[in-house]
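Narrative of accomplishments. A recurring question from our advisory board has been how the design workflow behaves on a single, concrete structure rather than in aggregate. To address it, we present the structure tokens for one chain from the evaluation set, followed by the sequence designed for it. No filtering or post-editing was applied between the two.
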């Protein structure tokens, strides 16, 4: 018993020594107060979700409403054996992050088509990443089909025609304007409809998984950093996943991206003409016109880009330039012509945008008259970068 008791006392003394020493060490330094989150009015959530749903509509009206919502992006059709009267419950929640639109989408099976005719009249030539949570998609570009499934990524351009179909699917779509990637033409010029794979793609999926549940809590300070991170990760994924394309497709897409980049860098130059662009990228003017045929012509593309930058300038409360000066920078010598073109493009006048910016109430482009149920996905995309 004595041996057992002595051993116990020895163990207690041995165990107690470090605790006493630790207490002595803690007393030697001032105690730091524990860091607690401090509620701040300027750290409130910055994003307000945009919602679209056909759920509460009569079943017979659901698909036509979805078709109108998607009309500026793609033409949609039901499978041959599914009548519209059966209903079509589709839902989207969009989060506008300046240069990034995150769309959470749930749709039944259908097919979709973005034809060349649509590109001629559309200012939308964004890049986007498709991350499926469930379901399958098959999308064809230049006679090549990209198959996508759960927990996989596809990188695609809205500046080129495509067609495809989807089963019932849940997805997260990341839309980014061309300007965000203007300096990455060397990487992106040869890629479209690309399945992203490998470790970097897995890391991007993990990053999206981390950001998505926090969208309703992100602050204004955090959003630009997230956009930059997504940009950098997408470029890295594309660079590691790209494969050599057919020689003719390499020439077309590479030339197009070089032309886009030259226009972006010289957008407000009075010398930005088809001849100047053709000389800068080393092709004939006829070839340049062929490249931009799907966009309604090179001059139409430049005009739309200038109007979009004018929208961004008018939406910036720190930009005090007169509307006439912004109109001149956009290539319009006559203010009335600028107002007419701007209102046609965005559905609101330059003065309305300037007034809303002064009141710190950003205004999204008005929905087309016939789409009385609210903004369409095309309206959401047109405001990216603003």
């Amino acid at each position: 018993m004595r041996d057992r008791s002595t051993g116990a006392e020895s163990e207690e003394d041995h165990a107690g020594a470090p605790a006493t020493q630790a207490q002595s060490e803690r007393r030697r330094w001032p105690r730091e107060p524990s860091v607690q989150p401090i509620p701040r009015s300027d750290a409130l959530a910055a994003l307000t979700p945009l919602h679209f749903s056909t759920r509460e509509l009569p079943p017979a009206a659901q698909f036509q409403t979805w078709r109108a919502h998607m009309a500026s992006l793609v033409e949609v059709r039901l499978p041959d054996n599914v009548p519209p009267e059966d209903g079509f419950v589709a839902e989207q929640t969009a989060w506008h992050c300046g240069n990034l639109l995150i769309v959470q989408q749930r749709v039944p099976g259908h097919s979709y088509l973005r034809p060349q005719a649509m590109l001629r009249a559309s200012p939308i030539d964004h890049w986007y990443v498709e991350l499926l949570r469930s379901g399958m998609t098959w999308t064809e570009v230049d006679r090549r089909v990209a198959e996508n499934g759960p927990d996989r990524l596809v990188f695609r351009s809205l500046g080129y025609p495509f067609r495809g179909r989807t089963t019932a699917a849940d997805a997260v779509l990341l839309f980014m304007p061309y300007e965000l990637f203007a300096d990455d033409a060397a990487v992106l010029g040869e890629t479209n409809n690309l399945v992203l794979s490998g470790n970097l793609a897995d890391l991007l999926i993990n990053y999206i998984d981390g950001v998505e549940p926090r969208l309703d809590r992100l602050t204004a300070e955090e959003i630009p950093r997230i956009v930059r991170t997504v940009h950098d990760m997408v470029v890295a994924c594309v660079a590691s996943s790209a494969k050599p394309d057919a020689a003719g497709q390499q020439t077309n897409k590479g030339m197009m991206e070089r032309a886009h980049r030259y226009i972006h860098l010289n957008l407000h130059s009075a010398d930005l003409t088809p001849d100047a662009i053709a000389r800068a990228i080393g092709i004939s003017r006829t070839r340049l016109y062929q490249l931009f045929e799907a966009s309604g012509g090179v001059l139409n593309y430049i005009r739309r880009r200038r109007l979009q930058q004018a929208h961004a300038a008018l939406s910036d409360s720190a930009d005090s330039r007169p509307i006439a000066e912004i109109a001149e920078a956009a290539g319009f010598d006559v203010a009335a012509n600028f107002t007419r073109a701007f209102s046609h493009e965005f559905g609101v006048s330059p003065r309305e945008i300037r007034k809303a910016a002064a009141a710190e109430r950003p205004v999204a482009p008005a929905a087309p008259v016939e789409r009385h149920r609210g903004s369409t996905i095309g309206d959401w995309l047109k405001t990216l970068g603003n």
